[in-house]
């Protein structure tokens, strides 16, 4: 091989490696300026339930979406899956999976992506399976509906995945859903979600219906499999404990908006937004119900200011300027906060 050919080959390999590195590090999911609206009737008044949301997740990253009940977490997750309730719609923005805007896909294309490229694990894991069909048959049919593989090959893969989620594979394969415990069913639904080796997993309150110990085990399993598959995970949880313990990055939502986001470590050690601070303070040592958990934050979770900062009606630090919409601004190396007081802090410190 001539010197020129060798050099050309080396440059091509280098370019391939660069592309690989970029692919590994460029986001799997990018949400840009996403708003989700409810219209009273056709052409009627618009109510924005999610407002101008921006976030991204890279391969191997677990991002936690936290916030009280009603803050817009599940609507965001449903929009990514193309499963918003009929009465709601995306009124602006983009949802990009590896650069492809999901909002431009047909229902059929979206159906193909959902379940295969984007897997989802819900709180109601019972809904992952049809009650009167054995788990094995359901897994085999799901595998064969996405990939053209033979029945024996699909059975082999289904058994393998039941093993990977640490279930007695043969036994679960020939069981009906109601014969499984809650923890077993959630593991089986994990197998059903991950067997296509998705690039993105959306887990919406995956442990809320489980007891503490079983829930922790399911999350351990999810974290382990995420590492093996190097996929991105969006962990939606009102339980800050899970988000703080498990995720690499997090976004805190209030009233349909992200009020603070960044590296989990950074937000945990140095929360800047009053809502994040109160959420962290309200975090229980023992297990309480969701309502008790947030009782320490003044006011009700649904108290959302119509103008300016969504948290203004509950914020102990609010001042006149809070009735202007706060912009998201850097508040640390890996942290962004939407709060007028962050600016005020800066002014005060500089004075
Ligand atoms: N189908 C719907 N029609 C009207 N409002 C809805 C619908 N679904 C959710 N909402 C409202 O949108 C807000 C956000 O809901 P959701 O995303 O489910 O919150 P979270 O998951 O954070 O608890 C809530 O105020 C809720 O009442
Ligand atoms: S902008 Fe104002 S009301 Fe909103 S969180 Fe900051 S201080 Fe509180
Ligand atoms: Mg929810």
Jot down its keywords.
single chain; 351 residues; alpha/beta; Rossmann fold; 8-stranded mixed β-sheet; 4-stranded antiparallel β-sheet; 13 helices; 39% helix; globular; binds adenosine-5'-diphosphate; binds iron/sulfur cluster; binds magnesium ion; AAA+_ATPase; cell inner membrane; ATP hydrolysis activity; ATP-binding; translocase
Structure notes:
It is a peripheral membrane protein. Belongs to the ABC transporter superfamily. It holds the Pfam family oligo_HPY. This protein is α/β, with parallel strands linked by helices and 351 residues long. It has a single domain (21-117, 196-350), classed as Rossmann fold, CATH 3.40.50.300. The protein contains 13 helices and twelve strands. It has helices spanning 3-25, 73-81, 107-113, 135-146, 151-164, 169-173, 182-194, 212-229, 240-246, 264-269, 274-282, 290-293, 340-350, and strands at 29-39, 46-57, 62-66, 88-97, 100-101, 118-122, 200-204, 232-236, 249-254, 257-263, 328-330, 335-338. An eight-stranded mixed beta sheet has the order 6-7-8-3-9-10-12-11, sandwiched between helices. The chain has a four-stranded antiparallel beta sheet with strand order 2-1-4-5, with helices on one face. A hairpin with a 4-residue loop joins strand 11 and strand 12. Helix 4 packs across helix 5 and helix 5 (151-164) packs across helix 7. The longest helix has 23 residues, at 3-25. It is globular. The N and C termini lie far apart (69 Å). The relative contact order is 0.12. The model is unreliable at 285-294 and 347-351 (pLDDT under 50). It binds adenosine-5'-diphosphate (ADP), iron/sulfur cluster and magnesium ion (MG). Magnesium ion (MG) binds next to helix 2.
């Amino acid at each position: 091989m001539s010197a020129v050919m060798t050099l050309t080959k080396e440059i091509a390999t280098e370019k391939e490696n660069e592309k690989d590195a970029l692919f590994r590090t460029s986001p799997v999911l990018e949400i840009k300026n996403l708003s989700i609206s409810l219209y009273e009737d056709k052409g009627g008044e618009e109510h924005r339930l999610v407002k101008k949301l921006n976030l991204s997740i890279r391969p191997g990253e677990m991002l936690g979406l936290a916030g009280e009940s009603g803050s817009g977490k599940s609507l965001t997750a449903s929009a990514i899956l193309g499963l918003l309730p009929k009465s709601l719609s995306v009124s602006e923005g983009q949802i990009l999976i590896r650069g492809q805007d999901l909002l431009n896909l047909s229902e059929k294309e979206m159906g193909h992506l959902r379940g295969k490229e984007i897997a989802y694990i819900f709180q109601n894991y019972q809904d992952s399976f049809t009650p009167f069909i054995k788990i094995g048959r359901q897994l085999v049919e799901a595998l064969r509906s996405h990939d053209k593989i033979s029945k024996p090959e699909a059975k082999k893969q289904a058994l393998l995945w039941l093993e990977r989620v640490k279930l007695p594979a043969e036994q679960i394969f020939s069981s009906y859903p109601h014969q499984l415990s809650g923890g077993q069913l959630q593991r089986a639904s994990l197998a059903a979600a991950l067997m296509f080796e998705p690039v993105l997993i959306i887990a919406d309150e995956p442990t809320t219906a489980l007891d503490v110990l079983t829930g922790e085990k399911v999350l351990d399993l999810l974290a382990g499999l995420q590492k093996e598959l190097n996929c991105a995970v969006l962990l939606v949880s009102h339980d800050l404990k899970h988000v703080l313990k498990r995720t690499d990055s997090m976004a805190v939502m209030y009233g349909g908006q992200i009020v603070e986001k960044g590296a989990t470590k950074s937000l945990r050690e140095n929360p800047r937004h009053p809502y994040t601070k109160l959420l962290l303070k309200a975090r229980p040592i023992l297990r309480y119900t969701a309502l008790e958990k947030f009782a320490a934050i003044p006011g009700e979770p649904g108290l959302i200011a119509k103008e300016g900062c969504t948290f203004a009606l509950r914020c102990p630090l609010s001042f006149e300027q809070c009735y202007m919409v706060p912009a998201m601004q850097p508040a640390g190396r890996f942290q962004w906060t939407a709060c007028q007081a962050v600016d005020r802090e800066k002014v005060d410190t500089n004075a």
